[in-house]
Amino acid sequence: MYHPLAYRMRPRNLEEVVGQQHLVGPGKIIRRMVDAHLLSSMILYGPPGTGKTSIASAIAGSTHFAFRTLNAATDSKKDLQIVAEEAKMSGTVILLLDEVHRLDKTKQDFLLPHLENGRIILIGATTENPYITINPAIRSRTQIFEVYPLSEDDIRLALQQALLDKERGLGNMPLTIDDAALNHLARVTNGDLRSALNALELAAKSTPPNTDHVIQLTLTIIAECVQRKALSHDKDGDAHYDVISAFQKSIRGSDPDAALHYLARLVEAGDLASICRRLLVIGYEDIGLANPAAAARTVDAVLAAERLGLPEARIPLATAVVDLCLSPKSNSAYTALDAAIADIKDGRAGQIPDHLRDSHYQGAKALNRGVGYQYPHEFYDGWVNQTYLPKSLQNKQYYFPKETGRYEQALQNRLKELKRRKKETPPH
Q: What positions does the domain AAA+ ATPase occupy (predicted)?
């Protein structure tokens, strides 16, 4: 039976694991578990192709426990029962459960007692954030370990091992690979070893030998065989929210280079809707009153981007990102509103003063509605000392201006002037 190169090159023990040394290196937690023969169930969380299955198979190879693989989305409760029966007969089974976040309640309820008694050591694998997607009953019985994309050096090392390995790899083929081709393959797969190995095998087996009977893998050949792993992501997945978060925080932190990097990721993913929505939020959440003109320009840029569509939309989007990055920042307006909302939720609303209540109906005057209201436009500078907040919230201050940006500095000066006049002028 044919198995792809990535399958054949899976590590047989922890020493053969490429990368993830924070988990399997000497003195690290998974290595300690194996050395002490004290394995516990775990969830491995990280991007595709980064070694979750490899770590599971290496653990099994290092402990000599039976190793079984199931998929939580496609395999049934009966498949779990078969594993449980095997565990009763042989002692302990390591179960790699792929897509563990898709485990339904029926399968979960069956699995839990077997995790409790240790017959089944679960190694759940998922690309989704387990703290968000996995049921607490499973989380409480497992340790959660994050795996990271492999570095270019890690990928290059694994590719070289596959080229030399005569038993499981391509060592029996008359292969040579240019350094530029190897480096390109290590780089463009963005930490996904599975993609890199599969591309290498395709290149090796689809390239005819030259006149010297050597299969020469050049940069051109590798580029044609590798399916470039773009930094795109499931728009409902964990990676999506990480990129969006990094995008906004880079703009908030006034770093245009980082912000443009994350914008590029979102553009490459074709996620125009998320970009536009986030830029509008940033314009008012992070820039706000420090530079209202920048927020207005962002609205114009978003309208242009939506009209143009990708790829041309990237042009106004890049302009807006740099503009927002280098603009002064203020969150004073929306944090003031949030403070007011918090009072409302806590029941601190109070009764609206009578002179502010609606008086546009017959009988309102008899109820004292609107009586005594002073129309500010009839006074100097459009202002009159008058009570507006409910009595229970008198002297409450929500808005605290910041000194970032000329516009909000002007607002601050205006607010100070009005407070001074309020102290000096008797209320009407």
A: 38-150
